[in-house]
Design a protein that fits this description.
This protein is an alpha+beta fold. It folds into two domains: about 130 residues, no CATH class; about 130 residues. It is built from eight helices and ten strands. Strands 2, 3, 4, 5, 6, 8 and 9 form a seven-stranded antiparallel beta sheet that branches. A hairpin with a 5-residue loop joins strand 8 and strand 9. Helix 4 crosses helix 5 and helix 4 packs across helix 7. The radius of gyration is 26 Å and the shape is elongated. The two termini are about 25 Å apart. It comes from Stieleria varia.
Length: about 300
């Protein structure tokens, strides 16, 4: 591989030239020369099932809520170990207070105050029934079998069923709050669901599952080379057909994206799905245990002679 292309891969490979920008430059950048967006599509097989779950400690005061959260997190770790999660994959986020600065929750609190009669009486009743909630997110992984697609689907289904049934977050256990505080928390959660405007929301204590595939640094470098050759072929073809001689082709940027559905602007509807690792490899998040599609793009330019 030539030096120019190798320099593109590390470290400039993650320069975020969006698909929309690339298309605009290709159509409107005639003064620069000829441009092209070369691509290489890949289909990876997920290696891990990943679970994330929000664990909550709730009580009348912060010290008691923190104590309850700590107990539930330790219980979650024990249950994950019992489910044979990869020990090194079990991670716990920093703790955070739940809903204290959220504008939508502040509106919900005002709605609840009106339900208690509004004014001073409503505020007093609300203060008596409020509780403090502190949360942490726990994540863990399990290796998927290296079998055929059907076997992988069956294994993934059995795993997710076992994890869901294990009550990782101790949701079946009562929080140390009064009946009135518990009722208010349930009403607040119901309001949050109603005000989610149709968006899927994962409830505290419910596990969420994704599948993770790995793209090695060598595989990524090979894909970048193939995408560059695609861009080079496009430019050479266009230069020949239009009789417009160009200078040597230069790669400008490379990008790795999930191969899922995109909107009309080229952005992935599932959001960011790739994460670069310290060893130069990438992890791709997928919704299915059988496939993690992705695409490597290289934007290239050849100035007119």
């Amino acid at each position: 591989m030539n030096t120019t292309l190798r320099n593109l891969i590390f470290p400039a490979a993650m320069l975020l030239c969006t698909p929309a920008l690339a298309q605009y430059s290709a159509m409107g950048g005639s003064d620069l020369g000829l441009t092209a967006l070369g691509t290489k599509q890949l289909s990876l097989t997920p290696q891990w099932l990943e679970m994330s779950i929000e664990i909550e400690g709730r009580s009348s005061d912060l010290p008691q809520a923190s104590k309850e959260l700590k107990r539930r997190v330790e219980t979650a770790k024990e249950r994950l170990a019992g489910l044979n999660a990869i020990e090194s994959s079990i991670q716990v986020s920093k703790p955070s207070l739940k809903g204290t600065a959220d504008a939508s929750q502040q509106r919900q609190m005002r709605q609840m105050m009106m339900q208690y009669g509004g004014g001073k009486k409503g505020r007093e009743m609300l203060e008596k029934t409020k509780s403090v909630s502190i949360v942490q997110t726990v994540t863990a992984r399990w290796e998927l079998p290296d079998d055929d697609d059907l076997s992988r689907m069956i294994a993934a289904k059995e795993l997710t069923d076992s994890i869901s049934a294990a009550d990782i977050a101790s949701s079946s256990e009562k929080q140390p709050v009064s009946a009135a505080q518990e009722e208010l928390a349930e009403e607040m959660n119901a309001m949050m669901q109603e005000n989610s405007y149709g968006q899927e929301t994962v409830k505290s204590g419910e596990p969420a599952f994704t599948y993770v595939a790995k793209l090695s640094s060598d595989e990524y470098e090979a894909a970048v080379k193939a995408a560059y050759e695609d861009a080079e072929s496009q430019i050479n073809s266009l230069a020949k057909s239009t009789n417009a001689p160009v200078q040597p082709i230069r790669p400008l940027a490379a990008r790795l994206d999930s191969g899922g559905e995109s909107d009309s602007y080229g952005y992935n509807r599932r959001g960011v799905q790739t994460q670069r690792q310290p060893d130069g490899s990438f992890e791709m998040v997928a919704a299915s245990p059988t496939e993690a599609p992705c695409i490597v793009s290289v934007y290239a330019l050849a100035k007119h002679k």
